[in-house]
Every structure is written in structure tokens, then in C-alpha cells.
Amino acid sequence: MRALVLPIVVPLSTAVILLLVPARPLLQRWIALAGSIVLLLVAVLLFRRVESDGIQVLQVSGWSAPFGITLVADLLAAMLVVAVGVVAVAVTAAAFAGVDPKREAFGYHPLIQILLVGVSGAFLTGDLFNLYVWFEVMLVASFVLMALHRTSAQVEAAFKYVTINLIASSIFLTALGLLYGVTGTLNMAELARLGPATRTPGVDTVLAVLFVIAFSIKAGLFPLFFWLPASYHTPPAAVGAVFAGLLTKVGVYALVRIFTLLFQSAPPSLFTLLLVMSVATMVIGLVAALNERDFRRILSFNLVGHIGYTTACLSLLSPAALAAGIFYVLHHIVVITNLFLVTGVLLRLRRTTDLIGLGGLYRTQPAFSALAMVPIFSLAGVPPLSGFLGKLAIIESTFDAGAYWLGSMVLAVGLLTLLSMGRLWADGFWRPETVRDTGTPGTALLLAISGLSLVTLAITFGAEPLFELTSRAAHQLLQPDEYARAVLGGTP
Amino acid sequence: MEVLLALASGVLYAAGIYLMLRRRLAQLIIGLGLLSNGTNLLIFTAGGLTRASPPVVPEGAERLAEPYADPVPQALVLTAIVIGFGLLAFSLVLAHRVHATVGTDDVDELGRER
């Protein structure tokens, strides 16, 4: 299955071309956009293949499964790669509205593409060490994107971000070393097939906790998320959009993979730990969001809070909850990317994202405000938008699983989200203006925002088929046999 | 030998974490370096130690004779060393830039409003 390697090769080739051609902004932007569109197309192609023919596997260079590097795409991975394509197109299109010239001259476009290589690779790999390598590819690109600027706030934020991520990588690597020592393999399918029988329970718990810590740092779960709101609001809007949309989701994806393939039969206390961390993340993220006065910081805390939804669903390990969680991740990727692009327009209009400097946008920019309504109210969970459907599914599944208190926490946190988004809307858009607009919204940014809003609407109106898909993905995840059979072949 | 290496790796972790909790950027970076080296040593040790028998099929033989050293952890460590080196170099440059723009190498000073 060669299509499997394309979501990695396409952005990589785009990056190489971008490095080779002269650094003329317009040329670079067009090539980046073309590359992203091709990425979206190959992702859709791969998704259709997975959807009709089941799990797709590629043994790189023909080395068979446990020995070589395996690329695997099940439904979850394929859907997430499509989401990567959507984000890529939106963000590279938004670049036409202007990236600051220095950043563009020093490799903004190739770096974005390399970031996409890392993210797609992490979603598609079937080997844990390979996952570590893709993580690093993604991180190095994000480090440079974050540190490309010389203002002190950005350099500081970048330093915190780099340090915490290096620590997380070390912990991840430690867990990998120990896991290899215990099982003698890092191929996810083989690990799933070996099952917990080959590992002693004590070591198993240590491994699981190490993985949870490492991925929770990357995903931004309580109590390990404080680096995220401290750094995500500093880079320019388009970079923030990619980071918010994709990077934390890779951490969530890794948690989902690890828990469904390796630790499904782990002691329940482990799942309780994950559940408690998730709930704390939701509550603290949203309460902190209410305490902020800056549009981007509010978004960062909302991002953190909503990560908790998915991991809470994961900790229940029921098909319905997992399906709802996957639906929520897909919805969230689109919406949060869109909202960070909205802050890009705000920066152009008012040169600030502080709510004090906003207001009156509803009158001065009616078209933009109408567009921004879609992601804002979708995140808030106002019916009938996709956020509402996602939350409804999550709440239903928690009640069905008998986790009533979790369901009520999700409801309460939903109310907090509504409050935080409502205040954003009231203060940012409805309140009479105190400052005048000093710029234009930028056609390219508006186009990108309307594109992503359309995707949100598509998720809203296509919720039924999408739900069927996420349910199938959840079933696939909860039955690792199918995954192991696809990769290793045969039945032992 | 395992015990010795396990201790060495533990000492590297401890020293790395201690240094990262210090306030100066330079110490933080040395701490990162020690931490990643501790991890490398741990992978190497956890993979099992076999002395003086490389996993190479000798001339004339059909297959490897047990015991032989597992090449996988060594390959993993090699990759991890390369990645760790790159990241360490990057964070050195970044620390230099932090010092150049903010004018301090005290981590506590960094978060402060100026």
C-alpha cells in the first residue's frame, strides 16, 4: 500500500522544494499552498482506501513486521491525517495575508511543512521508537517556528516550551528503553499481540505511568499543562493555529494508541488516574480561561480544557465513549485552528488580542463577525453546531457507561465553556467600540476562516455518517487483534 | 556490570534533574544533556548486556551462535544520541539568544514582567 507513505513524503518534498527555490514570498506561498492541497488529496485518498478495504499496512523497504519499520493506517489514523491536510491548507492559505518578512525569509514555509511531516508520521507509524522519532521531527520544527523571532516574550516562551518538551521526550525514551528490555520489541502490533502476559504487573504499571506522564505533557493534561498557556499565545496567529490544532492532538493520539494497544487490561487504578487527570484538566482549564483577559490566552486555556474531554472518554474504554471522543477531537482540531486564525484577523485590525482593545467588531466588520460566530459558538457548544453534537455524544456515553458524575462534570464544564466563549463574543464583538480599526482583515485569512467554518458546518450536518465512522474507528481501537493481524498477518 | 550501569544511569538522571532545578540557563542545559545521556545508558542496559560477541555471522557459519549482543538497543541509542545532540545544540543557541534579548540567565527572572 504505497498511498500510506504519501502523507509523509508529500510535505517532505514540498519542504525540500521550498528550501531550494529562491526565498521570494509569493513563490514560497504558492508552492506551500500547492503542497498542502496535494497533502489533503492524498490524505483523502488514503482515508477512502482505509474506509473501504480496512486497515492499511506498509512494511518499509520490505522488512517484514516486527523487524522493520511499519506504517499502519486504521480509521482513526486516516481521519486524523485528513484533519492534518485540512489544517495544512487553511494555514498555508492564511499565509497569503502576510507573514512577517523576517520569519518568511528564514524558512517559515518549509518549517510548517516539516511540522506536518512529523505530525503525519506520528499518526501513521506502527512502531513506538519510530513514534518517538516523528515526535522529535515535529518538535524541532515547532521549536524553530516558535523561536524565529527576537522579541523577549517569544524567546522566553520558546525556551520554556523547548525545556518541557525535552523533558517529556526523555521520559518517553526511558519508557521505551524499559519496554524494550521487558518485551524485546517496540512494534505496536507485536506488543498488542504479546499482551500483558509477558510483562510483570509491577513493571507494567511503571511503564504505563511513564507513558502517561510523557504524553500528558505533550497533550497538556493537568497537572502538566502549565507550559501550554505560557507559550501558545506568543507566536503569530498562523503558527499558533497549527500548534493548537495539531501538536496537542498528537499527544492525545499517542495516549489513545498506548492505552488501546498495550494497556487495555491494565489495572483499573490506571484508568482512574487518567480520568481524574482529565476531569481536573477540564475544570482547571476552563476556570482559568474565565480568569483571562486576552483572546489568545482564553483560547489556550480552552484548548487545554477540551483536551480533557477526549482523554476522559478514553479512560472509560467503552466503544460509545471512544467514538464520541474521536468525534470531539476531529471537531476540535478544525474549530481551534479556526479560532487562532480569527486572532490573526484581530491582530491585523487592532494590533492586539486583549479584550480591552477589541469590541465593536460586530459593527465595523459584520462579515468577519458572522464568520467568527461559527467557530466561537461551535466551541461553546451551542446547538446545532458540531461542538454541541460532540458534547451531547460524550455526555450520553458517560451516562450509558454509568459514570454519572463524569457526565455531570462534562455538563458543568460545558457551561463554563459557554460562559467563556459568550464573554469573548460579548466583549470582543458586541460591546461598543472604544478603539478604531487600524488595518484590514486580509482576504486570505477570511478565506481560510470561511473554509474552516464550512468544514465545521459539514461536520455539523454530516454528523450522522461521521459518527458511524468514529464508531467503527472506536471498535477497531478496542479490538487490537484486528490491528495485529493486519500488521503481522496470520492468527497465532 | 548491569548494576554498575544502572547506578550510573540513575546518577545521571539525578544529577540532570538537580541541575534542571537550578536557576541558571547553562546549568539547565547541562542538566538536559545529562538526562538524555542517562536515558541512553538506560536503553543500552535494559536491552541486555553481552560482551565481546557482535551480532555478525562468522565466516563459514550459517547462523549466529548464542549468545550475541542485541543490535536493536544499540541502534536505538545511536538514533537517540543523534537527536539528543541536535536538540542540545539547538537549546544552547536558544539559551544564548535568551541571554542576548532578555539580558539575564536567571530562570526566575525570565517570567517576570518588565
Care to describe what's here?
The complex is a heterodimer of chains A (492) and B (114). Helix content of chain A is 76%, strand content 2%. With 492 residues, chain A is an all-alpha fold. Chain A has a domain at 268-476. With 114 residues, chain B is mostly helical. Chain B has one domain (2-54, 68-110): Orthogonal Bundle (Helix Hairpins), CATH 1.10.287.3510. In chain B, 68% of the residues lie in helices and 0% in strands. Chain B has helices at 2-20, 25-46, 71-102, 107-110. In chain B, helix 1 (2-20) runs antiparallel to helix 2 (25-46) and helix 2 (25-46) runs antiparallel to helix 3. The radius of gyration of chain B is 20 Å and the shape is elongated. The mean pLDDT of chain B is 84. The chains are: A mainly alpha (492), B mainly alpha (114).
